[in-house]
Every structure is written in structure tokens, then in C-alpha cells.
Amino acid sequence: MAQRIHLAAVLEREGKLLLLRGPGETGWSLPGGDLLPEHDDVDVGMAAILGGMGVTVEGIEEAFYETLFIPTAEGHMVYNVFATSAWEGEPAVADGVEQLWAEAGALGDLPMDEHVRAGVLAAFGLAEPRDDSAAILEALQREMGVEADEADGGFASRREAGRDVLRTLSGGGDPDARHAGLRANSPELADDVVDFALGEVWGTDRLDRRTRSLEVVAMLAALTGRPNQLRSHINGALNHGATPDEVVETLRMVAVYAGFPAALTAWPVMEEVFAERGVPRPERPS
User: Cα–Cα distance between 87 and 11 in angstroms, integer?
Assistant: First the structure.
């Protein structure tokens, strides 16, 4: 299943949003573009795309709002939305591209991708967030040849599988208490995390949990700017049986494939986790 990563910005001026429509297109879209290989991360990519339009955003790393998953003919698009609170410049677009400044409440009357429209309306509190997780998961399972009744790793339900993953990620303890703590901190997202992310994805036995944990450490380190989540999943990797050497080697791989700045940013987080747990510092590679 092909995946495309797209970056888009909500630019607001005097209560109206900037929308663009390219030549031959029938629908309106947010200003943006695809994440390119030369972009170190999504923040850099979004800043570069807006910069090419003559727009400067203050604190782009704080402007990320949400990720939408949009089905396409080839697979799906990972659509990252940035909601900019402060920006400067006069947006300039290529020849033949139409511009429209529209009120958020009027988006329902404009032709545009339904997923993007729903995401923008939700950002302005005009609609409930759209949940396409089940459809995306079903498409991924079809692509991998996974039947629905195979996806729970032998547990009676997604909830049971997810709570078991939450327990082992956290190093043991009462799954009821772990789930309750997650609900206390993130009441709107807690059940989605347990049922979908942990139950549907983590809950299968096609990859062992140690491997999944190291993968998550690598991805969070590569994304940068997520120290709390990275700290949590380094602990989770150790809880799942990963050795300190394996965590170190994972971040060395991040340096090679995602860039040394990402690995150098993640390194102190790893060191803090090792220190907090009393983990001996691994030997330097010879």
C-alpha cells in the first residue's frame, strides 16, 4: 500500500482561511505540499513550503495540529495539518492557481476533500473530529492479507489486547489502573489508544513487543520534538526486554537514516532513562 506524506497549513486572516485550487482541479485545498527527501522533518518541510510562498511562520514547531489519514487510489495519504497562530507575508502562488479567503463556517458549501474539510471544521470547533482509523486499519489488513479475526493476537477483544500491551509497556501492574490513568490524562483519546493503537496494531503477534518498542523508539527519535513520548517508549523497550545496547544501536541507526541532529536530540533522553533506572552505561563500540 503506497503512502504519501503531505503537509498543509491553516492560514487565517481577519477570520478567513486561505484556500487554493490548481489548474484543472475542482476542489479547494489548504496551502501546502508533499514532504520531500531534502526536508529533515515535517516542521522543516512545512516552513520551506510556506517560505516558497512568501509566508514566514513564527514557531512552526509549535504549530502542528493533527494528522489526517486520507484514502487514495494508490493507498493512503498522511495529511499533516499545521494551525499557525502567527504568520507574516503575502501568500504568492504559481500562475493558474486560484486563491480564496473563506470563512470556516462556509467550508461546507465549497467543493473540497471531505477529510480535509472535516479536519479544518474540527480545528475550529465546528464539527466533531472524524475517525477513519477503522477504515485505514481494514485497508492495511487487506493489503497484508490479514483477516479481521486474526488481528487480536488471540485475545478476546481489542480492549483486552490493548490493555495487556499497556500493562507490559508500563512495566507491569494492574491494567485497570493503567487504563484509568490514561483516561485521567487524555479522556478523549484514551480508549482510541487502547483499542486501536495498542489493541489492533500492537496486539498482533506478527512482531514481538520488544521489536515493536525499538521501532517506536526509532520513529519518535526521528520525528524529534517529542521527548516525553520518546522517554516513555525507551522505558517501554526496556520493559519489553530490549537491552541498553539495543537502544543505543537503535539511536545510531536513527543517526544514519534520519540525521545526526535527530539522534543527538534523542541521546540525552536515553541517558536520562538509563540514569533513572540505574542502567549501566553500555560499552562504546570499538
Answer: 8
